[in-house]
């Protein structure tokens, strides 16, 4: 998994990598600029009239100057603005400045008339991870002007003004796209910053995970390439039993749809056998959504140990008898998945938390998490609370949202990269619950079940949204689950 190192560590990363690989910092800047231009030329409408690039005094500005040259070489009309006397800029900025072709129009910012032509693009290379104080004066004026412009706005590495690891303070560039190098800076993953970042793109510039691992940050970014090695392999002689027997408990009157979604998702994730236990006097009154599902009448005395995995909570309601909840925890000693009202009931009965089998997977969204541990002033504090909760209780916490955060009982925190906004639809969390339970039932470790569940779920959302777009519903995510295995090359 890709480590997410701090802005401060980036400087050392450069030095470490540069000395280990025998390349110069200028070479690394050239790679970054090339990666940006490769993204730009394949993503941005080529019919733009003008590219405006704004370059600050440090290496983020240096990237901007290198990008100006590379775009001009690809026949774009480029107008570069610099903010500080070139003599006072970083060494790599100066080196790139001296390589600028004549065809790039260059203007000092305070001599600019402030006009931005229609159908143009703004590239922000004012500050990167080296920002160390709030933006003022000429820099603030510039960002304010750019934020008012209607042109498409792209940030190099990080929107200027956004600190790499903290919550934003003061003026920040509002990008439509952020093209970040090598790994996402931590602050690019915070919900508070959505309106500054726009769409996030991570471009590899060839620094190895081993080089980054040396920093031991304990925070990681989960990508497609991490997933295949987490999967179990099955063979031609595998039988239904190998794929696991899963039970989904929840679904009070009027809310049985939730367990149906979880159970259907578990089947599509390859579970061998899936049972539903609705919280109804007579569970046989409901009809499972698909005929492959089976009903199970649970009471506090049934033996649950025939199941390989259990998930509790979707649609359960708050009227559940706590003695029954306790009986589930007493009758099944393997890690379980707890979602929705299973979590809300824990928040209302905190003593139950100590009875949950270790390494169980809890999947709260932000509100459910708040009910469990109280309010957080921002995502940084929330991350800290997630870490404390997971360590103190020996549980895996899947904090759902954009860039779902998985916190392991040893405190490691992993941000998911898959998924999109179209997944914010009723029942998509129930789908995730069923997927994680399915992997658990197939014999995956709880850690691998949580990571595979989260990644495949996000990817299924991406695939389904290609045809359903804003109209996507949770069942579409379920139908796309099989394609996620194909996409990732998993047999
Ligand atoms: N590592 C990598 O993977 C790669 C990194 N690369 C790139 O390097 C970027 C980091 O560059 P960086 O370290 O030079 O910092 P950067 O953000 O340009 O700013 C520092 C300058 O700004 C100044 N300054 C700060 N705050 C200020 C304020 N509020 N108001 C005014 N001035 C302020 C500060 O001045 P000082 O504090 O000395 O007064 C200094 O001059 C990184 O984001 C990426 O784009 C790629 O090229 C290659 C691969
Ligand atoms: N903007 C987003 N980007 C990526 N994933 C998202 C986004 N919004 C929601 N999701 C995912 O959709 C699911 C929603 O779950 P949840 O809030 O429990 O919904 P519900 O209760 O309706 O099932 C979570 O897995 C979450 O990570
Ligand atoms: K920037």
From TrEMBL:
Name the job this protein performs: Catalyzes the epimerization of the S- and R-forms of NAD(P)HX, a damaged form of NAD(P)H that is a result of enzymatic or heat-dependent hydration. This is a prerequisite for the S-specific NAD(P)H-hydrate dehydratase to allow the repair of both epimers of NAD(P)HX. Catalyzes the dehydration of the S-form of NAD(P)HX at the expense of ADP, which is converted to AMP. Together with NAD(P)HX epimerase, which catalyzes the epimerization of the S- and R-forms, the enzyme allows the repair of both epimers of NAD(P)HX, a damaged form of NAD(P)H that is a result of enzymatic or heat-dependent hydration.
Gene Ontology MF: a single term: NAD(P)HX epimerase activity
Describe its assembly: Homotetramer.
Q: What is its EC number?
A: 4.2.1.136, 5.1.99.6
Q: What is this protein called?
A: Bifunctional NAD(P)H-hydrate repair enzyme
Name the family the entry cites: Belongs to the NnrD/CARKD family. In the C-terminal section; belongs to the NnrD/CARKD family.
What gene name is listed for this protein? nnrD
**PROSITE patterns found in the cross-reference section:** YJEF_C_2, YJEF_C_3, YJEF_N
